[in-house]
Design goal:
This is Tripartite tricarboxylate transporter TctB family protein. The chain is mostly helical. The chain has helices spanning about 15-45, 60-80, 100-120, 125-135, 145-165, 180-185, and strands spanning about 5, 85. The protein folds into two domains: about 1-90; about 100-185, no CATH class. Helix 1 packs antiparallel against helix 2 and helix 4 (about 125-135) packs antiparallel against helix 5 (about 145-165). The radius of gyration is 22 Å and the shape is flat. The relative contact order is 0.09. The model has no long low-confidence stretch (mean pLDDT about 80).
Length: about 190
């Protein structure tokens, strides 16, 4: 729910904070619109097996990109009209805390590693690295459990999306033996 920003005396700390919030929300809205457009355009490059009136793998990305773009445009319009989102006031929010750049750097590194590793070692193993790395970065005590959970989730996604829905998720050299199983599931 948006609220109109109350008037603030120029040059005060509150005015600078409001300006910072406005800029932050504008950047968020513009990036969300750009992401929606990017996903929409990228959905055209998805190979759809067969033809006809079947619901294919493009439907979900088109739907998500449409909802994302519409929502982001509405947020952008609200921000341009001066209606900013409410500030966080939860008890678990420390507004004076600084950004933990080390943790953020680890998270970005694991996402980049996932992107690079998908084609090299396959979806399921890359998902295990991503899941385990993110869990470790966020403070998981038993990193090896996180990797095992990530591997299990990666295999489930591989079977459901690769086998049942026919999407092309690379198996990689270590999991190539799963291809006959995926072919049998997919029919």
């Amino acid at each position: 729910m948006s609220t109109s920003a109350p008037p603030v005396a120029p040059g005060t700390d509150a005015a600078r904070a409001d300006r910072g919030r406005l800029v932050g929300e504008l950047i968020f809205a513009v990036l969300a619109v750009a992401l929606g457009i990017f996903v929409f355009v990228g959905a055209f490059s998805i190979r759809a097996p067969g033809a006809g009136s079947q619901v294919g793998p493009r439907v979900f990305p088109f739907l998500v990109s449409g909802i994302l773009t519409f929502s982001a445009v509405m947020v952008l319009i609200d921000v341009l009209r001066g209606r900013l989102g409410p500030q966080e006031e939860g008890e678990d929010i420390d507004s004076s805390a600084k950004t933990d750049w080390v943790t953020l750097g680890k998270l970005v590194a694991f996402v980049i590693a996932h992107i690079v590793l998908v084609d090299l070692i396959g979806w399921a193993l890359a998902a295990a690295v991503l899941f385990g790395g993110v869990a470790w970065s966020l403070g998981a005590k038993k990193w090896w459990v996180a990797i095992l959970v990530g591997l299990a989730l990666g295999l489930v996604v591989q079977i459901v999306f690769g086998g049942l829905l026919g999407l092309s998720l690379p198996l990689g050299p270590l999991l190539g033996w799963l291809q006959p199983l995926l072919d049998a599931i997919g029919g």
